[in-house]
Amino acid sequence: MVVLGIDPGYAIVGYGLIRYENNRLTPLQYGVIRTHAKLPIEDRLHEIFTDLTKLIDAYKPDAMAVEKLYFNTNEKTAIDVSQARGIIVLTGKIAGVPFAEYTPLQVKMSVAGYGKADKVQVTEMTRRLLGLRKVPKPDDAADALAIAICHAHTAGSGLNNI
Q1: Choice among 47, 51, 67, 143 that is catalytic
Q2: Which residues contact 84 (CB under 8 A, 6 or more apart)?
Q3: Cα(2)–Cα(158) distance, integer angstroms
Q4: Could you count the other beta carbons within 10 Å of the beta carbon of residue 74?
Q5: What pLDDT score does 155 carry?
Q6: Cα-trace Rg, the chain
Q7: Which of the following is catalytic: 47, 51, 140, 143?
Q8: CATH numbers and ranges of domains, the chain
Q9: How far apart are CA 110 and CA 150, in angstroms?
């Protein structure tokens, strides 16, 4: 099973593609989609759609896992990120990729075994689980890989509904 993990944003969208086979996790590709701050939001959303479509076409994931959003500060940022997340979900739907979403707590539990694990613990466990020499950079890509791992663990256990 190939899983595309997404850390949603509108300035930076983290993505991580992994293969989960015979209880083994293999990294395929990871990185970020960056949009330019001076572009209107509709152009930024279009860029996210276009770049994500290219990734899906290239890797043909069996599932897409996206982090659920939680905001407690900036209302404008929340709206823009929510729009980007909607585009991300729609892009997967158009491509026929089954969708799942996970809270940060679920991702931390799945990857680090502790729901209050800090970013360093989660990224280090992501590195170890994927057999990478270095912690994935930037942080958005590392987060996306952790989300993909969470889905692989959940899907492999039969606990999800995909």
Answers
A1: 67
A2: 8, 9, 10, 13, 44, 45, 48
A3: 16
A4: 10
A5: 84
A6: 15
A7: 140
A8: 2-157 (3.30.420.10)
A9: 5
Residue 16 tokens read as 């991580």
The letter for the amino acid at 115 is G
The reply to whether 75 belongs to the active site is no
> pTM here?
0.92
Tokens linked to 56: 């899906």
Known catalytic membership, residue 118: no
Instruction: Report which of 117, 112, 141, 154 is spatially closest to residue 7, judged by C-alpha positions.
Output: 141
DSSP assigned state of 20: E
The C-alpha atoms of residue 12 and residue 20 are separated, in whole angstroms, by 26
Task: Give yes or no: 47 in active site.
Answer: no
Identified catalytic residue from 7, 47, 51, 143 = 7
- Cβ atoms 53, 95 nearer than 8 A: yes
* Digitized pLDDT (tens) for each residue of the chain, 162 residues in all: 999 999 999 999 999 999 999 999 999 999 999 999 999 999 999 999 999 999 999 999 999 999 998 766 666 678 888 999 999 999 999 999 999 999 999 999 999 999 899 999 999 999 999 999 999 999 999 999 999 999 999 986 555 444
